[in-house]
Amino acid sequence: MLTIVPIENPEGFRGLQEEWSELLESSASNCIFLTWEWLYTWWKHLSGRRRLLILTVRAGGGRLVAIAPFAIRPRALLDLTPFAAVEFLGTGSIGSDYLDIIVRRGSEEAVCSTLTEYLGRRKLSLRLAQVNAESSVSREIAHALSRQRWNLREWQTNICPYIALSGHTWDSYLAALGSEHRYNLRRRIRRLNADYEVDFKQAETDTQRAEALSALVALHNSRWQMRGGSDALNCRSLVDFHDEWSRLALARGWLRLFVLRLKGRPAAVLYGLRYSGTFSFYQSGFDPEYSRHSIGLVTLGLTIKHAIEEGASEYDMLHGDEEYKFHWAGSARRLIRMELHPPNGRGLLCRGARGAREGAGRAARRLLSRPIVEWIRALNQGRRTRGLNAAKLR
Q1: 108 or 352, greater pLDDT
Q2: What's the whole-number mean pLDDT along residues 49-76?
Q3: Do 81 and 182 belong to one domain?
Q4: Count of CB atoms within 10 A of residue 251's CB?
Q5: Residue 132 shares a structural domain with residue 273
Q6: pTM for the complete prediction?
Q7: Residue 176 is part of a domain; what is its CATH number?
């Protein structure tokens, strides 16, 4: 028999660290964005007005078999969201991908049944984002609730292009690329080395980490300021999150923060993470002064080479369908968002508010002139692409 014990305070969250890490490594959802370190640091810096609702599921003897890393987001009347809703920890502009419920392998069926029954009784709306469409415990629970007359809306929100590296050397990987892209990369690397003394290094000490992160923030924001700004590293809370998180990631051996220097100063920085065999390309920045050298393309290529040489099985470019990613990656995973509302008056009101939001958007599009509509579409597209991994590398 399984028992659910809610954790609703930061002290309880902090005390889960060791059990959380062991459980995650024993689950099919194991990824960097579900680590205790990532989510606890997010809670400290970016949770806002949310309330914790971490659901721990324990078997006989108290053994931890699952964690539902939830928080309750308060209602937002201006957004026509009349009631609080359950979300994953890590939700928002921070760019956590593959969010899910963490379940020990072999316990999935019992955990799904237990959590479905618990959530069905609580009757809170759920808004679950950045879920892997191909493999997710939370999706199974969502569909189980829909069979109990909950209203489920599910749609694709993004894709994560990735490179399967197992069995590749750098040369064999290059041979698998398109001939034009391969030729361009080699030519750019040769030209850069001919014109400059190139220094490409990974941050290995805390001092190097802090210097590289500072350079990343400066390069990223300077480049995007000319394009209306970026929401990836644009405020103190985000920078504070990355400062603390990258320090933890360095100590755990997960941080892959690279600086490419030309003439002794940073020309490009790539912020990556290595966890459980996967290298994740999280963020980048480069100096527009070196755009003609395709400095972003060169830096990305060198980090893929590094990932291969250190034995990574995959290079994940994370969410975003930018064209440049598909010059490197041959596969992609779909990310979905799910909204569930209970079969009661509150659920009907939430569904009505959602319909009102969608209807207001359709009405605005009909009333606005075509040039303004096109401008808004361009603005929204810019906001989407200015998030994580949005800098189009050349």
Answers
A1: 108
A2: 95
A3: no
A4: 12
A5: no
A6: 0.87
A7: 3.40.630.30
Judgement on whether residues 90 and 226 belong to the same structural domain of the protein: no
**C-alpha distances out from residue 41 to 241, 275, 304, Å:** 6, 17, 27
**Torsion sign across C-alpha atoms 26, 28, 31, 36:** negative
> Does residue 142 sit in the same domain as residue 176?
no
Question: Could you tell me which residues come within 8 angstroms of residue 294 by beta carbon, excluding any fewer than 6 positions away?
Answer: 184, 188, 393, 394
Question: Is 387 within a domain?
Answer: no
Which range of residues forms the domain containing residue 12? Answer: 3-159+334-369
pLDDT at 147 over 60: yes
Give the whole-angstrom CA distance, residue 345 versus residue 92: 28
Inter-CA distances, 55 with 58, 102, 111, 132, Å: 10, 10, 11, 20
Q: What is the pLDDT at residue 224?
A: 59
Read off φ and ψ for residue 269, nearest 5 degrees: -135, 135
Share of the chain above pLDDT 70, in %: 83
Structure confidence at residue 200 (pLDDT) = 97
Res 172: pLDDT:
97
Q: DSSP letters of 91-138?
A: -STT---S---EEBTT-HHHHHHHHHHHHHHH--EEEEEEEESSS-HH
Q: How far apart are CA 213 and CA 345, in angstroms?
A: 49
Token couple for 161: 């292009």
* Cβ-proximal residues to 262 (8 Å cutoff; 6+ apart), any chain: 192, 196, 197, 198, 199, 290
Question: Quick check: 156 and 336 in contact, CB under 8 A?
Answer: yes
CA distances for 122 relative to 53, 65, 344, angstroms: 12, 21, 12
pLDDT at 44 over 50: yes
Residues belonging to the chain: 394
Residue 319 included in any domain: no
Say how many domains are in the chain. 2
- Average pLDDT on 264-288 reads 96
| CB contact at 8 A, 360 and 93 | no
Taking only Cα atoms into account, the Rg of the chain, rounded to an integer number of angstroms, comes to: 22
The one-letter amino acid code at 61 reads G
Coil, strand or helix: which one is 55?
strand
Going by the DSSP 8-state scheme, the letter that residue 292 receives in this structure is G
Pairwise CA distance, residues 156 & 14, whole Å: 33
pLDDT category of residue 390 using cuts at 50, 70 and 90: very low
